[in-house]
TrEMBL record, chains A, B:
Residues 6-148 form the YDG domain. Transmembrane segments: none annotated. This is YDG domain-containing protein. One of its GO terms (molecular function) is ubiquitin protein ligase activity. It holds the Pfam family HNH_2. Gene3D superfamilies: 1.10.30.50, SRA-YDG. GO terms for biological process: negative regulation of gene expression via chromosomal CpG island methylation; protein ubiquitination. SMART domains: HNHc, SRA.
Amino acid sequence: MERIFGEIEGIKEGHIFSNRMEVSLAKVHRPTQAGISGSQNEGADSIVISGGYEDDKDFGDIIIYTGHGGRSNETGKQVADQQLKRQNLALAKSCLEGLPVRVIRGKHKGSIYSPNEGYRYDGLFLIEEYWRKKGKSGFYVWLFRLRKIKNLKLIVEESEEEYKSKRVPTQIQRIIRNTNLSRKIKEMYRYKCQVCDIQIETSSGYYAEASHIKPLGTPHNGPDSLDNLLCLCPNHHVMFDFGGFSIMENFEILGIDAKLTIHKDHTINPKYTKYHFEHFYSEQNRTDLK
Amino acid sequence: MERIFGEIEGIKEGHIFSNRMEVSLAKVHRPTQAGISGSQNEGADSIVISGGYEDDKDFGDIIIYTGHGGRSNETGKQVADQQLKRQNLALAKSCLEGLPVRVIRGKHKGSIYSPNEGYRYDGLFLIEEYWRKKGKSGFYVWLFRLRKIKNLKLIVEESEEEYKSKRVPTQIQRIIRNTNLSRKIKEMYRYKCQVCDIQIETSSGYYAEASHIKPLGTPHNGPDSLDNLLCLCPNHHVMFDFGGFSIMENFEILGIDAKLTIHKDHTINPKYTKYHFEHFYSEQNRTDLK
């Protein structure tokens, strides 16, 4: 079954479910027991907060969520260190990739934000950061800070009206864009930068960025398509967006001494590199600044 | 006179001034003639929109603003290409550094968002992007897309209340943090990464990021001080934040083969590197993923 990131059609924020089975059948959070839904490769798409973890903190729009594992089946107490594996790694992956996570709160006594009954769907959150610390038990736990995405709809509507394009602020772009295409280009290049071949390594896997050659925003209105995408490291992404280098019609790189790697299944449209060159590259100024 | 970025004390959004001299005396926009206030090294702190440029577009919360230069003094028409220099470069610098720009709209016929009289202070904007294109005149102009910062106060207040810390979302953090300290550390290292020595070059100058060793946010509550900052390239910033490497008590780098450059005037507090190591570095997992 395909994992769905983001909103589930027909389920509005505030929707109350009687029990975990209902939540699961509605596809809001598939597992009927586990608190984290996700896999290491795809990322996590939803979590349930039900008050079982002593290091959890719920501030409403910001949640400190404890990872999975290390608890005794009998007592529910933390009896071993948590590892950054499986579901915990799935949450870390969602953090790295900027994927939205559905949050479901279950009734419990530990938080004023928990519902009075059953389980409530409380909208989409982004994972801003993850880290480990010695928990109250003395064992290491992994913690994840989630922040609610507040104005997703507002921004998307405003943007559509104004531009007939999908231009939205960076944070939200990350969510909307980070769909199959973006992941596809990164996987095609195995998270290696097409300019410098670097593969950025983090504690939860490789990191790369999908960069649009002709930008999506107004007035450029470049398409969100594979022939308009590059897989870049953050350094070359910044340089590319801010005219540090460009790409010629023959796909040679202009401005820095490097060669563009192009996968055999990746066709770049020279119309878009030409657009980038004309609009973002300023050779005259580069030499002036030196 | 020191250039002030952000809000001017005592001047609320919507404040109406009779003329440019009043705007200048209030320190909202210092120059009495020029549309852009700023310098190449510091960035731009304010702009006035008064309808003189045919390629300007005003969507209210989003503005496409044309750079300075290339117009005839007599006819006001574009008669030459604009260069990414002086005030234009100041705007580009504000874009790169994420500095807030005050926007003042003057009365003119070209936009429904212009005031009925005089000049109106319309709040803080971020410059999201800059590019050049052949303008309506046939000559190259530089364009800047500004987006209004809508919820600055809301977010800062919420954060203070919840955490007694300055934790706010990334975009706003960029503004608040990008003050003297952040600039100081980047200038100390001449925008070179302390890990790899790379100096990222863009069309408008060098780019680096100030990275907090012990993060500012809850529950870390690291201080915004020089002994808790590093000057990093975007690649090593991502890796550091997500546990790709850490720093030992003797300031040797752990996890990658590199040496940390430390300027003689830069004292790093080993308390913070220890915190980073304990909370963000996960050697066990790194080797597992390989």
